[in-house]
Amino acid sequence: MHDKSVYTGAQPDAEIFDISHWPIVFIRFPQLGMPDRTNRLLNGLTDFLLQQQRVVFVWIPARHGHEREPHEEEKQSTRWMKQYKTELRHWCAGYVYLTTDEEVRASLSTLFPKLKKIMPFPKTLADDPEDACKKAREFLALPVQ
């Protein structure tokens, strides 16, 4: 098994991912105009899961809102989720969503219970990066299910 405090995979896309707190990964959800954004995001997530280390993803939502995601990119993400569902369930210790936008927070809170079947790991909201790291460390400390 790898040293859990060190990321040994391919260098992640710095426009999207920040691994300076590994195994906590901050992810700036790509904006609509970013070239090849869905592939860049999914390739990075795949690399993290292939580390076979528990990881927490801290999502920083895009400004455009989920409802504006292009249909084909949504389908691509759904296919990825199906392809990597085992790895995601095994290696992802949780999702933390970093946002203070009340509308986004309300929408995510409503969505969390609906996602439990496909993503059984814990999900929560954070107010700032320090709060996100604290909650991510708590998820990492939970027993593996």
Provide key terms for this protein:
five-stranded mixed beta sheet, 5 helices, alpha/beta, 19% strand, 145 residues
Model description:
The protein is of the alpha/beta class and 145 residues long. 41% of the residues lie in helices and 19% in strands. The protein is built from 5 helices and 5 strands. It has helices spanning 37-49, 71-83, 85-91, 102-115, 129-141; strands at 17-21, 24-28, 55-60, 92-98, 123-126. The protein has a 5-stranded mixed β-sheet with strand order 1-2-3-4-5, with helices on both faces. Strand 1 and strand 2 (24-28) form a beta hairpin. The longest helix has 14 residues, at 102-115. The radius of gyration is 14 Å and the shape is globular. The chain starts with 16 loop residues before the first strand and ends with a helix. The model has no long low-confidence stretch (mean pLDDT 87).
Quick summary:
The chain is of the alpha/beta class and 145 residues long. The chain is built from 5 helices and 5 strands; from the N terminus they run ββαβααβαβα.
